[in-house]
Amino acid sequence: MNINHLPNKNIWGQALVDNLINLALAEDTGSGDITTDAIVSQNVKGEAYVVAKEDMVLSGINVFKKVFQNVSGQWSVVSGQFKERYRDGEIVRSEKIIIEISGNMRSLLTAERTALNFLQRMSGIATLTKKFVDSVKGFKAKIIDTRKTTPCLRILEKYAVQCGGGINHRFGLYDGILIKDNHIKAAGGIIKAVKRVRDNAPHLIKIEVETKSLKEVKDALNCKADVIMLDNMDIPAIKKAVKLIDKRALIEVSGGVTLKNVSEIAATGVDYISIGALTHSARAVDISMEIR
Predict the structure, then answer these.
(1) Domain 3-127+282-291, what fold?
(2) To which CATH superfamily is domain 135-280 assigned?
(3) Can you give the pTM of this predicted structure?
(4) Would you call 113 a catalytic residue per the annotation?
(5) Is 180 a catalytic residue?
């Protein structure tokens, strides 16, 4: 996968990402790396390489580099140099070197864990996403993420989903309308909830409605919802809903999706399959950094 095809390829220049990196470094270093400072003289140079310990889809290489650059700036030493072997979105096989780094030894040792934490987390999300994406090949269904992300890391985690071939759902509460079960309860029903949204929301924003039964699907259709979410429905119910909707709205399936059943869900003809596990349950992949 070419990083230039990713919609959010330019997020690395955003102040938000830089702030996240600095917060992570402050959390780890505090007033300073007392172990490294005691062992390594200030101007010693060093080299390191980062190696994959399992097969993975890479994500976060620019965040990884930025951690080292920020540490170098904080400690007033020359920034290191990087030799990348892989780019975000590419498959890295076990034991392959991902990137080589040269620079101030103190910076290498101080930045190591924070940089790896980002890279392992993001690559874990990308790797899991790719497994789901590969499982629905041949079907029209697209794999999409949710808002079930680590607080403050959403921009990075949703980018990682893209690296794995997935699609981002709404980024937050402000850029998409999704009428969920609690909204429906608060409004007194789907029909009332949709009417209030149409009366108050920007007219160009599409309306998605969460449904838990065929009756609710009918209500959403009658309200002319743009997208109908089928929440925690079993396969027979999904098939009935797809037939009932009959292409009058886009269909999203959510809840209870696993690698074991995602292909069967996709085969029903739905348009989207949203999976919270992409970001809330992805396992960090095994990556290590070694000093030469």
Answers:
(1) Aldehyde Oxidoreductase; domain 3 (3.90.1170)
(2) Aldolase class I (3.20.20.70)
(3) 0.92
(4) yes
(5) yes
